Amino acid sequence: MIRFDQVSRYYQSGGKPALEDVTVEFNRGDFVFLIGASGSGKSTLLRMILREGLPQRGKITVAGQNLARMLERRVPEYRRSIGMVFQDFRLLPDKTVYENVAFAMRVIGAPRTQIRKRVMKILSRVGLEHLTKRYPHEISGGEQQRAAIARAIVNSPAILLADEPTGNLDPRAAEEVMKILRWINASGTTVIMATHDRAIVDRMARRVVQLHRGKLVRDQQDGSYDAPEGSYAWELLTKEQEESGLRAHDPAPLLTQAVPMVAVGAAAEHNQQQGPEQGSTDQNSTAPNRPEPDSPEPDSADQNSTEHNSTEHPHDGEAPLEPEVAPGDQRDTEPMDSAASLEHEPDPAPDETSVADSPGAEVVPEQPMEPPAEQENAEDSAAASADSHRVIPREFRVTWPEDASDADPIESSSPAGVDAADMPALDGEAFEESPEATPQESVETADLAADEPETDALTPVPPKPIPGQPSRSITQSRLAWLFQSEESQGTETDKPAADEPAGAARPEVPKPRASASEASYSDTRRTAEQLRASKRGIFGRRGSR
Ligand SMILES: Nc1ncnc2c1ncn2[C@@H]1O[C@H](COP(=O)(O)OP(=O)(O)OP(=O)(O)O)[C@@H](O)[C@H]1O
């Protein structure tokens, strides 16, 4: 579904790459923890999935679409098909919880009646039905993050990217967030979560992808926070520690946190108790089996996840997840990678904007650093030359089965290890496109005040089981259509956006901003005329297919 082929990303010409020769694939329904020291490239990788910055080398494909070849005017639509959650929530401060979530639906032109129903349902699922009229500053950090997640999933994205979503939360609030993310994943959404939270990673025992100085050094199914002893990542990091003057046997951690390893054996022990897993894509896993799919009920999900913690783990039982040190402390003590710290350039504070928007920065053009023909050759020969390019030894690499159906993220069966019938119906009542309200009409006429519920207290809607596959939401349908359309219209996809002729028949759509949040929400500031133009461009072509 998401594939990085030998991707390198430089923010500054001549500087160190934020990502270097990264080859990794995330499949439909995956739940992946992306870990690594500060500055190792996690956020960069997530942003690149959002097409915030293109690789100078290599190729990124999402649902079969090469992002470098995506037309610029399709980028906003593409980004809206992906949910994104940030550490700092990024709710709109002048809008209520309800409005923040409704806003995401208005942007895609959902009918007002659908908006109200769907927003209330999602807010109920994340436990915020009683806070719909509160403003972000009137609720807790955990509640803000749940609202942000509700906003991210309200349009039923096929992919949810979460950049340290628990980084600002206490353990209990973090665990609430994780319950929701598990539930979202169990509904079929691919979840990729960058995190420094050792306790959560160890407890959930999901796939772990580890970056180190921009390189992928571990891809482990059912992984734990620390690399298994003797693995490539472990050896690499141990060697670096020794070279930097640390003793190898220091309890100080490999890579990220000054916390003793406590749960490395827990996942393995748990996995030994489990049967063989179907659909595992990782041939390198040191802990071969994934836990049973989480229960749709948050509490049971929690219980499931605690069950596989052995007595070695200090967070057994019903006590909330308590990391060895507070999240803030973890971050403070994190950079054991001293060499990386020394080499860290005094950049402006990293944010979601690309370097092109960073004043004063030496800008690396988005175009490939190599001549296009060369890059094409490199792409074509990627598979053949992979062995000679990758740093990771064969036994720690992942091989990915070619899946022709990947081009369509919707035509999927339940994710591996997840029985859809047992999962809450995140998409079960996804709204359908209504002929009564066209996208621009609903945006033009939408009145949030009218949408806002009368009362704060609403009866939670219990999740409904999905009878078969999850139903297709507007967003998922659009994502599928977007890629199918790109693929079926070779003249478009064969040509990079920048090459599009000036006299193209489609009206111009404002360029997306660099950040995901801005890209998503600045669109709503378009005039009605711009939206009409956008619609003519998008839906006109669909009609002509
Ligand atoms: N906009 C930018 N301009 C220039 N350099 C950047 C930019 N964003 C990130 N970098 C650099 O790219 C490298 C990777 O940064 P990135 O934010 O991806 O790391 P990270 O693993 O997400 O870190 P953290 O855990 O602290 O969030 C770092 O060296 C960082 O300084």
From TrEMBL:
Coiled coil segments of this chain: none
Regions of compositional bias (Basic residues) in chain numbering: 533-545
Keywords: ATP-binding, Cell cycle, Cell division, Cell membrane, Membrane, Nucleotide-binding
Disordered: region residues: 268-545
Gene3D superfamilies in the cross-refs: P-loop containing nucleotide triphosphate hydrolases
Matching InterPro entries: AAA+_ATPase, ABC_transporter-like_ATP-bd, ABC_transporter-like_CS, ABC_transpr_LolD-like, Cell_div_FtsE, P-loop_NTPase
Gene Ontology molecular function terms on file: ATP binding
GO process terms (BP): cell division
Bias (Basic and acidic residues): 309-318, 387-397
Domain of life: Bacteria
Compositionally biased region (Low complexity): 361-386
Ranges of Polar residues composition bias in the record: 270-288
Residue ranges constituting the ABC transporter domain according to the UniProt record: 2-238
Complex formation: Homodimer. Forms a membrane-associated complex with FtsX.
Stated family: Belongs to the ABC transporter superfamily.
Record protein name field: Cell division ATP-binding protein FtsE
Species assigned in the record: Nesterenkonia massiliensis
Gene name, Swiss-Prot/TrEMBL: ftsE
